[in-house]
Amino acid sequence: MSLTVRTRFLTAIIAFALSAPFAAAQNVELPDMGSSAGTVLSPDEEARYGARMLYELRRVDMVLEDALIDDYVHALGYRLVALSERPEQPFTFFVVRSDEINAFAAPGGFIGLNVGLMHTAESESEVAAVLAHEVAHVTQHHLVRAYESMQKATLPIALAMLGAIIASRNSSGNGAEAAVISGMGLMQQQAINFTRHNEYEADRIGIFTLAKAGFDPEAMAGFFARMGRATRSNNSVEVPEFLRSHPVTASRITEAKNRVEAIRRNPPTVTESAANETRFRMMRERAHVLTSKEPAKLVDTYRGELRHADKNRTTSLRYGLALSLLRSAQATAAMNEFDRLLADTPNDIALLLPRAEAQRLAGDSTGALERLHVLAEVAPDHRAVQLAYADALNATGDKANGQRAMAVLRPILAKYGADPTTQGTFARACELAGEDARALEAHAEVALYTGRPYDAMEQLKRLLERPGVDYYQRARVEARIDELKPYMAELERQRVRKEDQDT
Ligand SMILES: [Zn+2]
C-alpha cells in the first residue's frame, strides 16, 4: 500500500487504539469504520484481543522477557489487584522496552509498564501509583465504552497496530514512521481532552487501592508533580508520554493531596519496608541494564555513582554495576561484585542466578552448573531458577544434559506454557536430547506467542507429516491444531477486513 494510504489507515486506527488503552473513550469521537453500535465484547474476547497486543509487541521485540522482573512486576501488580474493586479480574503485567515514561492498559487486564517509567520512579510506591491508576481504568470498565461504538472486528486490528506503533516510536524512524508518530501525537492530544472524567476517576479509585495495599498514597501526587517539574524545567526534554495522556494540572495534584488527607484520618498500615525499596531499586536497575544498548558505558556510570552514593543506594547501584559488567563480557569482575552483594544477602536469587552465569562465562561451567543444580533442588517451582539451570545445561551441548533440561522444564511448562522464553528453552533442550519432533512442537508455541500464528500453524501441520511422530504426540498436535482453528479463522476474517480498510 502507498505511504499516504498507509498513513491514513494508521492514523484512523491509532485514534482508536490510543483512546482505548491509554485512557478511556468517554465521548471520544471514534473514526467511522462502518461500525454498528452495541457490540460489547465478552470477557473471553477481551482476553484474546489484549493477548494479541502483547504477542504483537513481542514480535517486534518490545517486551522485556526476564523471569525475575516478570515475577517482581506481577507481585507488585497483584498486591494492588487483590485490593481493587474487581479482585477476580485476571491481569497480565509486563514490561515494555521503551524509554518513554508511560504505562497503558488494554482489554483483558493487560497492563504494560515502560522501562522508562520504572527508571524515572524514585520509590516502589510511585510505580505502584501508576499501576493502580491503570488497574482502575480496567476495573471501572473505562474501556467498554469504546467497544460499544465500534464493530468487534476492528478492535483487535487496532490493538495489533498499537503494538506496531509503540515499536515504531522507539526506532530511529524513517519517513513513514515519522508520519505515524505525528499522527499519533495529534490523536492523543484529542484523547486527553475527551477523557478527563475517566482520568479523574482512575486517579480517585487508584489512590485508595494504593493506600489499601499498603503503599504510600502520597506517591501519586509526588510522582505527577515531579514529572511535571522535570518537563517544565527542561524544554529540550520531551513531554513524558504519561503526561500527554494524563496531563498534570495543579488541581490534579491538589486532588491527590486532599485524598491523602482523607485517607490519613483513617489510615491503613503502610507496609513499605527498606527491604521492599531495595528490591524495587534492584529491579529498576536490572530493567535498565537489560534494555541498555551500551552496557559497557553503564559500567562507568555506575562506578561513578557508587563513589558518591549514600548507603541505602549502594546495593542497587552495585547490582547495576555487576549486571552491566556481565552484559559487557567482564565476567570475572561481575562475579566479584555479585560476591560483595552476596556477603549481605547470601540467599538472594536475583544475585545467585546472574552470579552463576558470570561464573560460567568466566570459564567455570562445572562450578556454575553445580551451584544452579543445588538451587534448582530447593526451588522446584521457581521459573527463573529452573530456566537458568536449564540454560546452563543446554549450554554444555551434551545430550544427557539436554534430557535433564527437558525434565527440569516440564513442570514449569505446565504452568507457564504461554511463556515464549520457557518454550524456547525447552525447544533447545529437546534438540540437544535428539527429540526433534518435540522440539518442533515447542518452536510452534514460541511462534504463536510471539505474534507469528501462521508460522505456528504451518509448523504444526508439517510436524504431522514427519515420520517417527508417535501416537501420543500426533494426538496432542492434532488437538492443538483443532484448538487453534477458530483463532486462525478469526485472524483470517480480520485480515480480509484490514485489507478492505487499506484500499
Ligand atoms: Zn489514565
The set of bound ligands, ions and cofactors reads: zinc ion
The low-pLDDT segments are 1-38, 172-194, 234-239
Structural class of the helix and strand makeup?
A: mainly alpha
Mean pLDDT: 80
Number of domains: 2
Strand order of the largest sheet: 1-3-2
**Silhouette:** globular
Helix percent reads over 70%
Rg is 24 Å
User: Helix and strand string, N-terminal first?
Assistant: HHHEEEHHHHHHHHHHHHHHHHHHHHH
How many extended strands? Answer: 3
Report the β-strand fraction as a percent range.
under 5%
Distance between the termini: 8 Å
Number of helices: 24
Main beta-sheet annotation? 3 strands, mixed
Descriptive overview:
The chain has 503 residues and is mainly α. The chain folds into two domains: 263 residues, no CATH class; 125 residues. Helix content is 71%, strand content 3%. The protein is built from 24 helices and three strands. A three-stranded mixed sheet has the order 1-3-2, with helices on both faces. Strand 2 and strand 3 form a beta hairpin. Helix 1 packs across helix 7, helix 14 packs antiparallel against helix 15 and helix 19 packs antiparallel against helix 20. The longest helix has 32 residues. It starts with a helix and ends with a helix. The N terminus is likely disordered. The site of zinc ion has 6 residues, from helix 5 and helix 9.
